[in-house]
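FW: tagging you since you asked about this chain on Friday. Here's the raw sequence from the shared folder, copied in full. Didn't touch anything.
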Amino acid sequence: MATRSVIATTTVVSSAQPLALDELAHACGADADWVVQLVEVGIVRMRVEEAPPAQWRFGSVDLQRALAARRLERDFGVGLDAAALILDLQHEVRRLKAVLAARGVG
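HL: got it, structure written out here
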């Protein structure tokens, strides 16, 4: 029986250690242009709108949303506009469920 080894790398993402554009792209298996499109459709949001892409920084929530958008593209053939809508609706459903749970409903 042959053994197979897998090497995994991790990157810490925090407010003190945000990801640069190229790092976010690499983490998602995409290119920088794809990340720019994520910003354009609102999947990830920039804190400073006027900053050039080379100065953009992304946090863990941005990474989660970007990875979710990548999965929607890959698994369902969804475009980024539709992915933005789906992710926003998923967020709203989670928020509403939390409100209901806090009120003891559901």
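FW: The beta strands are 19-20, 57-58.
HL: agreed, and The mean pLDDT is 91.
FW: great, closing this out.
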